[in-house]
Write a structure and sequence with these properties.
Elements: H1 2-25, E1 30-36, E2 39-42, E3 48-53, E4 60-61, E5 66-71, H2 73-140, H3 147-208, E6 210-212, E7 217-222, E8 229-230, E9 237-240, E10 246-252, E11 264-269, E12 278-291, E13 305-313, E14 324-328, H4 336-341, H5 345-363
């Protein structure tokens, strides 16, 4: 028995080496991978305090459902400070506008008074001018104007010119004040726009502290409680899809495989009792050779290299998250063992039983 055991082991080893070598050189219609899913990991870029947690571990949540909310005390302080600055700017803008408007009202009143004064003088001179003309005509019987009457007419013309100049001057001052009101608003408007941008940024950051589910799934772990303060980048909660969404497969670099994007494939579970093949669709193919995950290596210490294949699975499939799977081009599960021993099945069947039978007889 002992004499035959060592040759049998050598023969089986040679068969295994031959199988591995030949399988790497041939075309294959199946490969292996891991069933994976989407995971939402809740964490914050700044230290926060948890104010509300609306779910529990293991709870099924819908997309958009509120998970938790937090607060940052400095955001509230900044918001109050910016609000005070905004009030100061509004008060300053109102005060400036009221001051300039008051000056405009004063100028308008002064303009009316000055023009009314000139109108009164003009009317008085016009009356005097008419009386002088009438008196001169009654005395001389001639309509010709005297030199004194001409002087009065000249005074009237001078007052009219003065009135026109005063009106234009006062109007220009009023227009200048109105322009000053508009121009005084510009720096304040710029400051208000800057403050509004900062307030909008604070509001955006505050909204980021309200966390909702990115997809329909199940709550994984909750690491903190309400009222606790969380350091920056510390994980707070995880959300997992209720079933694997995709498979990340790997095709060995020495194996030829005709898989194509958009191709329909079937996924078979290796580590569970799921016997039904899960339908999938090839979404993408890797453009470079990458190392195999440790779980897919035959020997964890020996690196293997291959091409990634991403496969989208059908919804509500029975696969376990993270389990090893075999991907094939047909719903029937490949029989790897029969493929391994097929070229040498008859020889092994005839050799191994006979060898053990002879060994047993020799030992007897």
């Amino acid at each position: 028995m002992n004499k035959l055991l060592l040759p049998i082991i050598w023969i089986l080893s040679l068969i295994a080496v031959f199988f591995l070598t030949s399988s790497f050189e041939k075309n294959t219609t199946h490969f292996y991978g891991l069933a994976e899913n989407h995971e939402q990991s809740v964490r914050f870029q700044e230290p926060v305090e948890i104010t509300h947690i609306g779910v529990i571990e293991g709870q099924l949540v819908e997309k958009g459902q509120l998970l938790l909310s937090a607060k940052r005390s400095e955001l509230q302080a900044q918001k109050i400070q910016l609000g005070n600055q905004m009030q100061e700017i509004n008060a300053k803008q109102k005060q400036t506008a009221e001051t300039l408007s008051a000056e405009i009202r004063v100028l308008k009143a002064k303009r009316l008074a000055e023009l009314a004064k000139l109108d009164a003088q003009i009317q008085r001179l016009q009356g005097k001018h008419q009386r002088d003309k009438a008196l001169y005509q009654s005395i001389t019987g001639s309509p010709a104007a005297a030199s004194g009457i001409d002087v009065t007419a000249e005074e009237i013309r001078s007052l009219r010119d003065q009135k026109a100049y005063l009106s234009r001057s006062m109007d220009a001052q009023i227009s200048a004040l109105r322009i000053q009101i508009d121009t005084s608003k510009m720096p304040l408007i710029v400051q208000k726009n800057q403050l509004n941008e900062r307030l909008n940024e604070i509001e955006r950051k505050a909204n980021e502290l309200i966390i909702r589910a990115d997809f329909t799934g199940r709550i994984g772990s909750i690491l903190f409680k309400e009222g606790e303060k969380i350091p920056a980048f510390q994980g707070v909660m995880t959300v997992h899809a209720p079933y694997p969404k995709f498979v990340k497969g790997f095709i060995h670099e020495n194996v030829s495989n005709d898989v194509k994007i958009g191709q329909t494939v079937w996924v078979h579970a290796l580590s569970s009792k799921v016997h039904q093949a899960v339908k999938g669709r090839v979404e993408s193919l890797g453009s470079r050779i990458v190392p195999y995950p440790e779980r897919l290596r035959k020997n964890a210490r020996v690196l293997s290299w291959g091409r990634e294949v991403n496969i989208r699975l059908t919804d509500n499939n029975p696969l376990l998250l993270g389990e090893k799977v075999e991907v094939s081009f047909s719903p029937e599960r490949p029989n790897t063992a029969s493929t391994f021993f097929k070229p040498f099945g008859k020889e092994i069947e005839s050799m191994v039983p006979n060898a053990f039978a002879r060994g047993k007889g020799d030992s007897q």
